[in-house]
Amino acid sequence: QVQLVESGGGLVQAGGSLRLSCAASGSIFRIAMAWYRQAPGKQRELVASILGGGSTYYADSVKGRFTISTNNAKNTLYLQMNSLKPEDTAVYHCNGAHGYSYSWGQGTQVTVAS
User: Fold this and answer.
1) Contact (Cβ atoms closer than 8 angstroms) between residue 11 and residue 111
2) Are 35 and 90 contacting, i.e. CB atoms less than 8 angstroms apart?
3) Which among 8, 33, 74, 88 counts the fewest CB atoms within 10 Å?
4) Could you report the per-residue pLDDT of 49-68, keeping only the tens digit for each?
5) 28-54: average pLDDT
6) Helix, strand, or coil (residue 14)
7) Residue 44 in contact with residue 111, Cβ under 8 Å?
8) pLDDT score of 29 more than 70
9) Of 43, 17, 46, which is closest to residue 33 (Cα–Cα)?
């Protein structure tokens, strides 16, 4: 099974930035990968996705603030998060997209203080 390990979360003030990383056990990013988040009392939602060809998608709530990227040589997925808002507070996970799903990692907590 593909192993996914998220890191980079933390506590930041509103308006701050974080960069999340997702390390994978294999070269899977050529297919489709995504960042998801889940806040207390809410369903898990897709935040951003990237296809093997480089096309990206962003949820309206993060468009213009977040950037998804990959380093395939390092088998690593990134999420650069700028202008963070309290409503971005959630546990962030990476996983496949467009029909590709792997075992969920532990996720990384992002907390944005107002």
Assistant:
1) yes
2) no
3) 74
4) 999 888 999 999 999 999 99
5) 91
6) coil
7) no
8) no
9) 46
- Calculate the dihedral angle through the C-alpha atoms of 73, 95, 77, 28, rounding to the nearest 10 degrees: 10
pLDDT over 90 (residue 26): no
**If you ran DSSP here, which 8-state letter would residue 26 be given?**
S
- Six token digits for residue 98: 């467009």
Whether the predicted pLDDT of 99 surpasses 90: no
Report how far Cα 24 is from the mean position of its chain's Cα atoms: 13
Count, in order, helices (H) and strands (E) of the chain. 0, 10
Identify which has the larger pLDDT, 99 or 80.
80
Confirm if 49 and 68 have CB atoms less than 8 A apart.
yes
**Position 21, amino acid:** S
pLDDT > 90? residue 4: yes
The tokens describing 48, both together, are 């951003």
Q: Tokens in use for 38?
A: 């889940």
